[in-house]
Design a protein that fits this description.
about 0% strand; single chain; mainly alpha; about 50 residues; 3 helices
Length: about 50
């Protein structure tokens, strides 16, 4: 680990949240609700991004 830790700002956190939301929405673009509910990999990818 880097000896000098960078302290994250609110703007940093918001940037991470925005990126995760954009990735997650890209994963489901064009999918129906039914297709999403049947696709465990996509569900897990979404969960991973919002955690």
């Amino acid at each position: 680990m880097n000896a000098k830790r960078r302290h994250l700002t609110v703007v940093d956190y918001l940037g991470h949240i925005e990126e995760a939301a954009m990735l997650a929405s890209g994963y489901v673009q064009g999918m129906t609700k039914e297709a999403f509910l049947e696709d465990k990999k996509t569900q897990q990818a979404i969960i991973y991004n919002i955690m």
